[in-house]
Amino acid sequence: MTEEAPNVQKAGKIGFFDSGLGGLTILKVVAKELPQYDYVYYGDTANLPLGDKTEEEIYQLTKAGVEALFKKDCLLVVIACNTASAETLRRLQDGFLKDNYPDRRILGVVIPTVEALINSDSTSTLLIATKRTVESGKYALELQNRSPRKIKLYSVPTPELVPLIESGDRAEALSKAIVTIEEEKGSNQFDTVILGCTHYTKLKDGLRAHFNSSLKILSQDEIIPNKLVNYLERHPELESHFSQGSTRTIHLTLHRPDYDNALKELLGGVII
Active-site residue 81, yes or no? Predict the structure, then answer.
């Protein structure tokens, strides 16, 4: 997270965008680390998952979500979705943001995760992610551009995991993730697994229990909060314009009754 901070003139909120509920795990840990700020979450659940959409569809849906958050007074939006971060973040920053909202900022989750990998002692890593995230090659590109040392990166798409996690079938999702990782270990040697989708944070404990100390699991809910803290410390002119009412507001484009329990579990009660 290295973008220049805007010269904002009014109090505002911090926004989070994702296609479903995965990004709520990121909001939860960020709000725990920085409880004083006001947060708005926009989950485009009507178009879940983004991982099976075209690049243009992902761009248009992400742009619509980000703009909705800007209209809700968010000065900073975190795209808490790897697919959207990989496919559209730079295009949004270089075009849409400069042309329409030059006083706002958009951050993603891919670069902070790559930085965490570089700062680890990994020499060979497996990325599991959505089909679009893997096909984008964004992780490999950022790793190549940023790492001063050689880290091998293997990538495998796991498109079946998001629907399972969204439906509440974490046991089946965990089982499929374990099978995928074990199959990859049969042909490639790696010491670390990147959970390259914010939904997959729900699987980290089960994966760590299964693989014990044989694999290190990088989960984005353990990466993004400190990265955001560091970003705000580097940009006090931005931080000083955030409102501090400790509110958390959730907007979903399609609501289902089973989301209520997930929202309560993640945030302990919210405004929808």
Answer: yes
Fold exhibited by the domain 111-220: Rossmann fold (3.40.50)
| C-alpha–C-alpha distance, residues 120 and 123, integer Å | 9
* Residue 222 exposed, middle or buried by CB count within 10 Å (0-12, 13-18, 19+): middle
Q: Spot the catalytic one: 69, 79, 81, 114.
A: 81
Peptide bond into 6 cis (omega under 30): no
What CATH topology corresponds to 13-108+223-267?
Rossmann fold (3.40.50)
Q: Which of 197, 223, 263, 266 is catalytic?
A: 197
| Residue 23 contacts residue 31 (beta carbons within 8 Å) | no
221, pLDDT greater than 80: yes
Hey, is 18 helix, strand or coil?
Answer: strand
- In the predicted model, is pLDDT for residue 51 greater than 50? yes
Is 74 among the catalytic positions? Answer: no
Query: Do 13-108+223-267 and 111-220 fold alike per CATH?
Result: yes
**pLDDT band at residue 271 under the 50/70/90 scheme:** very low
The predicted structure's pLDDT at residue 21: 81
* Edge-first strand listing for the sheet containing 152-157: 152-157, 124-129, 192-195, 216-218
Task: Evaluate if residue 10 carries a pLDDT over 80.
Answer: no
**Block residue for tokens 């409102």:** 243
- Count of CB atoms situated within 10 Å of the CB of 47: 19
- Domains of the chain by residue range: 13-108+223-267, 111-220
Q: Which residues of the chain form beta strands (DSSP E)?
A: 13-18, 39-43, 74-79, 105-107, 124-129, 152-157, 192-195, 216-218, 248-252
| Residue 19 phi, psi (nearest 5) | -80, -25
